[in-house]
Amino acid sequence: MKHLQLFTAVGLLALSTVATYANDKTRVSYKEVAVHDPSIVADGSNYYLFGSHLATAKSSDMLNWTYFGGGETDACTLFAKKIGYANAYNTQKITSVQNYKGATVSFGNFNAHSWQCKGNNVQGMQWAPDVVRSRKTGKWLMYMSVNGDNWASSIVCLAADNIEGPYVYQGPVVFSGFQGRYDHNGFTKTNDWTYTDLTIATGATSLPARYNTDKWGSYWPNCIDPCVFYDKDGNLLMSYGSWSGGIWELKLDETTGLRDYTHTYPYEINGNNAAEGGADANTTSDPYFGKKIAGGYYVSGEGSFIRHIGNYYYLFLSYGGLNPNAGYVMRVFRSENPDGPFVDGQGTSAIYSRYELNYGNNSVTNRGMKLMGAYAGWGSMTRGERAQGHNSVLVDNDGDAFLVYHTKFDDGTYFHEVRVHPLFVNEDGWLVTAPFRFTGKQTTQKQIESERLFSAEQIAGTYHLLKHPYQQPCAYNDKTDASFSKANEQKPVTVTLSADGTVSCPSNADYDGTWMFTQDGKSFITLTLNGWDYSGVAIKQNVDGYKDCPATCITATSFDGIPVWLYKEGVTATGIHEIQADQNSTKVQQAYNLAGMPVSDSYKGIVIVGGKKVVRK
């Protein structure tokens, strides 16, 4: 009887705490950084971001970031030798390589600034690097885009013993724009192909007809936006490209960090061997550029990123224009192989067979699984977020994945910040994004696949629901007008999920339907709203921007790639069996607050110890 009285008293206290969360939430701020096109990599207990214009930052928690490196200034510490931009990337370290036949040949000297279109500078055109550690040499390899007008771009490799540098220029990996039509900084357009590695890669002694074109962007890639990754077999691969002739992939040499010239590629059109001739927009494999994996026909698509998560390789792309109102949005495809074919939930290929507008309210193709769109009024948000994209993904040692991207805002500026959200794999093998930023690991993929984190009674309640529709209105002229932004972003509606499996929305019948757990002992969940199924997971998170504000969350997606997010505050998913006084416990175990975060022994209030609620006084 005494135990029951304690249960009632503490239970009332817990209920009171939940009921007053809406008014008692304490705001917290984080150390934000503006790193455009952020590529994330872990080194020990630290996380590093590398972005365009040499923007770099580091963190121990993926939430509070600190700049390092100095950016595109005289104070930059990323590189080993301080030289002017005109002399950057002009003397490489590697002087010989094995060519396409496996013979050792002189690598020559390739000056990336000289290759840029006449009048281009290195400063301001160092875009979207990616960094990986060579498993063979232990060195950190940085792949930098040196962009140029008229596709006169290159991706170069640098190496360092320490992730923070100094990095040393090793040599180029791939060039674009050698069509003999535009002068370069270091030489004229005539026979510009001879200043590339085309002969080393293919044996060409003259410019092949397929590259001799006035419409390079309709057929061939712009060599920027590298993503470098290891596949399951230990091969080091690089995807690259932006708009233009699509996204391509090459095999790299993990010893040098450069292209593996001994790995050759056939010339194929639509996946079939073909005789080399003039340019063909349906080229799917090329002796110089490698294998096409996405895009083509100058459709939008950039910032490719590939990671193996669970049972698939996932290809992330950003469609649309990168400005706040220009329709920038992240899409995902998947494949069982690192070089494709990549498809979406409808089985549609990531490769295009004709030009199709693929972003904004006038888009004509529903391709790729969307991760999120422009939204406002969610959780603690004080301004809407939009134009999220050019993402990377971190997969930790536990197999849990984290989406890292830059976001812009609805305030009429070009300002941007980095965001990190957990990613989960649903029952159908598609990725779904957690509704809130990562503030500490509270739900793992292993838990979803092995535990029922919530009972039906715990799921029941009133939720905020946010749907990210496929077509997102955009201003194709790249306006940043705040009034347009605010008028064209999604805002949440209120729905009720009942323990009997029904979903009701008094304000909009489109959100009426049902919900159900789909497997015993697991946390996979399906929502059926207005006849459409959304497959997802039930997780616990903290509402970012608030201290100790736990939430029950659902994230799900339809087969055609439309995500929905739901959350309700003040509910934990801790498997609570009873409530007991702290002084009755003799076993020392880690304690957690109601947000699922570990706390010290001196923490006072309601904590969870061993799956049970405990009141510490």
UniProtKB/TrEMBL annotation:
One Gene Ontology molecular-function label: hydrolase activity, hydrolyzing O-glycosyl compounds
One Pfam match: GH43_C
Pathway connected to this protein: Glycan metabolism; L-arabinan degradation
Site (Important for catalytic activity, responsible for pKa modulation of the active site Glu and correct orientation of both the proton donor and substrate): D225
GO biological process: carbohydrate metabolic process
Organism superkingdom: Bacteria
Domain Extracellular endo-alpha-(1->5)-L-arabinanase C-terminal: 435-565
Cleavable signal peptide: 1-22
Keyword Flavoprotein part of the UniProt annotation: no
Chain ranges passing through the membrane: none
Family: Belongs to the glycosyl hydrolase 43 family.
Protein name (Swiss-Prot/TrEMBL): Family 43 glycosylhydrolase
Species per Swiss-Prot/TrEMBL record: Hallella mizrahii
Taxonomic path: Bacteria, Pseudomonadati, Bacteroidota, Bacteroidia, Bacteroidales
